[in-house]
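Sequence in, structure out.
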Amino acid sequence: MSQWEKLKQLDTKYLEQLHTLYQDETFPMDLREYLAHWIESQDWDKAETNYSLATIHYQNLLDQINNQYSRFMQEKLFVCQHNFKRYRRNIQAVMGQTHPVDFERHQNVEQKVIALKVSVQACEQELKFLEEQQDEFDFKFKTYKFQESNSSEKQKQEELKVLQSMLNVLDNNRKKVLEKFGAFLGEAEMLLSMLVKEELADWKRRQQKACIGAPLNVCLDQLEDWFTACAVCLFQVKRLLKKLEELGDKVTYDKDPFKIQRPTLEKHAKNLLTTLIKSAFVVENQPCMPLQSKMPLVLRTSSQFAVKPRLLVKLSEVGNHLMKVKACIDKNPPNGKGYRKFNILGTYEKAMNMMESNFGGLCVDFRHLQLKERKSVIGGKGSNEASLIVTEELHLISFETELVYQDLNIKLETCTLPVVVISNASQLLSGWASVVWYNMLCSDLQNIMFFSNPPLAPWSQLSEALSWQFSSNTKRHLDPEQLNMLAEKLFGVQENYADCCITWAKFSKENLPKQNFSFWLWLQGILDLIKKYLEDIWNDGNIIGFLSKKRERSLLKPKPTGTFLLRFSESCRDGGITFSWVEHLPNGESKIRSVQPYTKAHLNNIPLSEIVRFYKVMADENVPEHPLLYLYPNIPKDEAFGKYYLDSEADLQLKHNKYLRTRLIVVSERPPTDISPGMMMDEVLQDDFPLPDLMDWL
């Protein structure tokens, strides 16, 4: 039973306290109810002191709210949909990850949106007043014409004088109204510039970073509200300008400002609306294969992928107009015979729909698209000497539609970030490296020839992106010391890596010294090892992980005998982990001992926690002893790893083989202290489980 269910069964007096706790709408009781399982599975205590983890929790919370919202949509629970949408916005307003500068900028946009609404209301009021004034003039003028034949010349002159005075006032007020409309359009143009050049551009950059693992908020609701408010105001002014045209048709005169200035204002309003709506057509969810959600923008031929364009303008009437969106790839491919060409298969033309009933904008969710390579009749891959390799070749998927609304007919087009198209799974990690490098360094979102001359990556940017690889796949980022070890691996020992840069080739293509794999493949092998076998231990901070041998020695030597730490192997392509411990000999000498790395083959048979738990070394007279006593810096082994231990020997047997009656125990033979260090094979109670050697060094 969950904690929440237990709370609901408390006595009435305690339930009153519970209700009091949830009186604040910041975090409503509905969220606690529906997200109870997820909430109770998170480590909120650690998030209090770990900003990176807190950021991940925040983004995951929004994802959970969105998922629950989608379930409400499927179940047609209208009120619950409405509430959860409101909760999401409230939480974003209170907890949103915005830098103080960004917050001030957003406040500025919000104020300009409010000012624009006030301005359009003022224009409408001025128009009503002008219409009443014109009706009065029109009535008196028609009355004068009707009575003209019966009036004396003197009366005519007096009435004409009055009418002329009224016309002068009317003409002056028309000019003032046009000035107000002009001022409104100036405000709208300034706001539109902020929305497109600053806010939307900032969102696109955040989306780039989020695609490669950055814990950034890329929710479009706030932008959609701003775009919609601006569009509503512009459509309203466009209707008011049409009303001015009608007033001008009823009453006009020589040098009528309505005839001279109004068409220019109407054209300006139409251009602003066109720019706004064209800019509002974006790709909300970048292309991604279902089983590779952490590696978007890498697509495999003949494998399905999903992508979702969205229109950031909520106009309920638009929902009544069929807007078909068509997907295509590489509309403007680069010259060169070596550049591959693809066809899009599946339902590549769909109608946009109201994403959130009457409260949402329009989107179209392509879920089952596929790419198929077109075979070239002349030449082929490699026929152009300058052609890029498959995983460096970038492609753009674009979307086209048409908005027909009022008297507007606007062709809309948007495109994805560049995608890498692979043909087999072995190319996945290389393709992902290209995606990371591009979105880390490139601000030109359509530069498909980026890898013809890839730029250097500053360590400040690369280190951040490397940390994101871990924080997006686990609950732990890389700390400065771990990143320092990676920098040392790439650049050698230096005091400061701030000014260091690395080439694309050294990052992902060239092998590490004395190895047959690149830095990138080595790092991805470790990440895969963590996700499959070590995630809980890694998330809890019990694996130091990235640590040079020199640094390992300096950490362990001053510690008591039996202090150990866990670090990743530098020699395993597919990931390996080892533990090292310190021993202080009777003669005062200190030795650091370490086992050869445990790989996926080992950890698939026995969890690392059980290896640490039962690991023994054969001491004098073949008496086994446990050398691992304290996890660095000074945590008793069972305190650090106890919660990962399997509950009983029976559980361990069941995990591996329910008919096995012996426990897997890792035992190493201690080398004599009076001979040179050597490597002895570990012994185990199961012949087909190859365990690593014991090594020691000074």
